[in-house]
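PUM-HD domain-containing protein (Papaver nudicaule), 650 aa
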Amino acid sequence: MAAKEEKGSKRKRSGDSVKEGIISKKPNFVKPPKSTKPSADDDGLKKKTVDRSSKGGKKPQYDNKPLHDEENKEPKTKKEARHQAKELAEARKKKRKRHYTLEQELATLWEKMRKRNISKQDRSALVSQALQKMTGTIPEIAVSHVSSRILQTCVKFCTQAERDAVFVELKPNLLTLACNVYAVHLVKKMLDNASKIQLEGFISSLHGHVASLLKHMVGSVVIEHAFHLANASQKQSLLVELYSTELQLFKDLVSTKEGRLVDIIPKLGLQKASVQRHMASIIQPLLEKGIVDHSIIHSALLEYFSIADKTSAADVIQQLSGPHLVRMIHTRAGSKLGILCVKHGSAKERKKIIKGMKSHVGKIAYDQYGSTVLACILSMVDDTKLINKIIIAELQTMLKDLALNKSGSRPLLQLLHPNYQRYLGPQNLSSLSLTIPSLSKKEEAAEVTSELESGKGGDNEMDATSVDPDNSKSLEEDEQLVDGGKKDPSVRRKELLVNSGLAEKLIDMCIDSAGELLRSNFGKEVIYEVATGGADQILLPTLSDKLETLHKAIAALAALPNEANHVLINFHSSRTIRKLILDCPSFASIAWKTAFKGKCEMWSQGHSSKVVCAFLESPNPDVQDLAKSQLQPLIDSGSLKMPETKLTEQ
């Protein structure tokens, strides 16, 4: 109780706290009355002002006005406030930026030179004026956000002599500028316009810095750009730096002519284990940072797979499986990496690869190299349900556009006629047959066989597993897994093409767009394979009625009156119809009855004559009998000329 009374008394006496010398915690909102007597502090202030003024010899002024008059500095209107803030910002920029005045002058010139309606002479004069102002400060201007763009415009429109002068000034700082976010664009533009000597000098200056720049998010872009512009020997000089420390330190060793890493190691006497460790120390940070878009990295990874042991190769495949691989398959080396990952990856890793392609299948299919990876997946992965859900479902939405595209038609043709050289080409076929030596079961089987033949074993005693017949069976099964999975290829193909509904939609698309596909350079291959039922007649048992409708649609186009770009006159369509007559007897009979019966004389000249002659060239005797009675008189009269090979056979 006593404590409470003391607190209450303190609250009552709070108003007298100032008099008693106790400072109150509450803010004092009422201004205290001005005292008429000057305090000791005021006298001291006056004395100080007297002393200061007396030094200068001026009359002392005892002015009671505040030192900082806020009322005089405050702007009267909003316009004055904006003007005052602008001036303050300009002053701060001048203190902070060394070349602020120069940048302002260059910005004024830039606004004039980048206009579209300016003449070349006026632009050239403005560019020369800007470059003259920048001389001596170009490396500093190149790292500025705005000025670097001005310099890029000047490099684009200036003369070759002026461009060479800029290159000479930038040359000592190119490696530093290559890592700058703004200057990297200028460096790329300088390399695009560089002469062969300048490009060679820049690539030689990269010696010893390739690995460190590749690990930099911005610097790796410059390395990739230089790799893209370089010739074969220059590309090799950039690549070999990633192989070994010796090649990174000694420039003379780089001039070796051996292109493959497996050839360089014995040529220079390098240790394979040391090379593998050095490459792993470079590759692992790149994969962790996600720097996987560049072709030089893809080439280095391919070479790494050629010497990597089983564990290291499997680890890299595990890291690449997923979204990373989608960003890599747009290059030739990247597509080979994708094929190797699909081939040697486990079922879980293949699943990650396919899931990573979700919503990107169309873009991959239209890509020159990505379409080969899709063809590899369609012919090797056993999980057809996942493929139908992600890949086939997206392909079905763009069948016509895919069929008319060179790369887009490749996955469709791989299902219709697998591994056909005419459609894939020799390079893509060789890519599909690539393997990683350490993961290839064929190599393991060859090693076991060679050891058995040479009698080499542990202390001249062979292991039981090396000659066990069950073990040899397992090797054969693993070899089959590498070549395309455990599932029968025909069963896998039927599940993807027929059971998924892709074939039915493909036939409907061909019926609706028969004329456009026949006249197309790439669509003609798709409609031909569909009309013939595909390889091994995979479409005929279940979709024979649909195929007959397609045959009638093609025959109806051939039965139209003769006009410009008729399907029997067009170069592509006439040859496709001729092939269909030769290879598909059911189509030949429908076409004869619909389009050619009684009209052969009209089509006996030009490209259409080859279509008419196909009836007599057909290996099917029933097709020959259909047309022989009408075509033989035309041959005898000379209206229709048969190929010489056919005449000699008769």
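The chain has a mean pLDDT of 82. The CA atoms of residues 253 and 505 lie 58 Å apart. ok done for today
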